[in-house]
Write a structure and sequence with these properties.
With about 375 residues, this protein is α/β, with parallel strands linked by helices. The chain is about 50% helix and about 15% strand. It contains 12 helices and 13 strands. A hairpin with a 2-residue loop joins β1 and β2. α2 packs across α3. The radius of gyration is 35 Å and the shape is elongated. The structure holds adenosine-5'-triphosphate.
């Protein structure tokens, strides 16, 4: 091999070694570049502010009314990426300008049973003592239209959409509502006014709407709204967002009452201990316009209630029920029941199954003491 050929060989082998070492380096370079770009993307993603999940309430062209999680509503633009939107759809909205950016595939589906108690009660009229006149009125106003709607059509009158039961706590308002639900085989939907506005902040009005929808589906149905005053109290001004929320929920309730047909198989029963603070709008004709007072039972009423709650107890012969009834003056039905239960506990503590006179007296005294303590607490709180 001459020198020229040798030189050529050396050059070729160097070039070959370059070509074989260059390719892993290039490969490494490519991988590093890809990693850098991925990391850059990730950094960008972390920098983007979070988007808010909102509900579409109404769509008008390329604008929509959205409801943000705290319940406030805004009129905003819709990005073309959202596609077709309809009320109830969920979207992602920019936190600054609230424009709807993207539609989410989830829809807002309420499980109404998470918010209210739904049951088919088995309370019978016989479980209620001392409220015959009130029970009769409820039967006339609620039971009859549910059982015989055609009768009202023939006579040409429209029965009330709902009634308002008012009176002291523990006097049997819930019991009456359950009894009429049972006697009409209706679904009993119980909702507590204060929970609607405090526990499910921002959702009150929507839940009210859903409750009525649900009731129509499950008809015949009784919607029982306990503590109606916390929802429907007179308001001097609607200033704070909490008050606005209560007001929105109340307005929705009025809208629902005004909206559904009178002979629809849904009846509303409101209950309150504070009729004095109710907004008159709720008891206007066509709404809860039949007001029924549920009083603290008198002697005769207490006797009946006591009979109901002692019917499964074995009372000693020497217990003078008349005397017990007098000792329970001003007791509500719930307190009479509590006195019976306490008497039962005295017997259990003494390893007996029969109730003695002293058990009963002890039960009554215990309830009286508790009432006194509650009264003192109230005085401490409110002077
Ligand atoms: P609140 O205003 O506190 O909601 P309420 O008027 O709805 O009270 P209920 O829940 O119906 O009172 O009564 C509580 C319990 O007291 C009942 O489950 C029942 O055991 C007893 N009770 C109350 N009133 C009567 C009554 N008239 N006859 C028989 N039991 C009664």
């Amino acid at each position: 091999m001459n020198t020229k050929e040798k030189e050529k060989n050396v050059i070729e082998s160097v070039m070959y070694s370059y070509s074989t070492t260059a390719s892993p380096l290039e490969e490494e370079n490519r991988i590093l570049k890809e990693t850098v770009s991925k990391l850059k993307e990730e950094v960008e993603r972390f920098k983007t502010p979070p988007l808010m999940i909102c509900e579409i309430r109404n769509v008008e062209g390329n604008h929509a009314i959205i409801r943000i999680p705290n319940g406030n509503q805004f009129y905003v633009g819709i990005s073309a990426d959202c596609g077709q939107l309809k009320p109830g759809d969920m979207v992602l909205a920019d936190q600054k300008n609230l424009n709807a950016i993207r539609k989410l595939s989830i829809t807002r589906k309420f499980n109404i049973q998470k918010f209210v108690i739904v049951e088919k009660p088995d309370t019978s009229w016989a479980d209620i003592g001392g409220l015959d006149a009130q029970a009769r009125e409820i039967q006339e106003v609620v039971e009859l239209p549910l059982k015989k709607p055609e009768l009202f059509k023939k006579v040409g009158i429209t029965p009330p959409k709902g009634i308002l039961l008012y009176g002291e706590p523990g006097t049997g308002k819930t019991l009456l509502a359950k009894a009429v639900a049972a006697s009409t085989n209706s679904t009993f939907i119980e909702v507590v006014g204060s929970e609607l506005v405090q526990k499910f902040i921002g959702e009150g009005a929507k839940i009210v709407k859903e409750i009525f929808e649900f009731a129509r589906k499950k008809a015949p149905a009784i919607i029982f709204i306990d503590e109606l005053d916390s929802l429907a109290a007179k308001r001097v001004e609607v200033g704070t967002s909490g008050e606005r929320e209560v007001n929105r929920t109340f307005m929705q309730l009025l809208a629902e009452l005004d909206g559904f047909e009178p002979l629809d198989k849904v009846k509303v029963i409101g209950a309150t201990n504070r009729k004095d603070i109710l907004d008159p709008a709720i008891v206007r004709p066509g709404r809860l316009d039949r007001l029924i007072h549920i009083p603290i039972p008198n002697n005769e009423g207490r006797k009946e209630i006591l009979k109901i709650h002692t019917k499964n107890m074995s009372l000693d012969k020497d217990i003078n029920l008349k005397d017990m009834i007098e000792r329970m003056e001003n007791f509500s039905g719930a307190e009479i029941k509590a006195a019976c239960t306490e008497a039962g506990y005295f017997a259990i503590r003494d390893n007996r199954t029969n109730i003695t006179k002293s058990d009963f007296l002890g039960g009554i005294e215990k309830v009286k003491k508790e009432e006194l303590l509650e009264g003192n607490d109230y005085m401490k709180m409110f002077g």
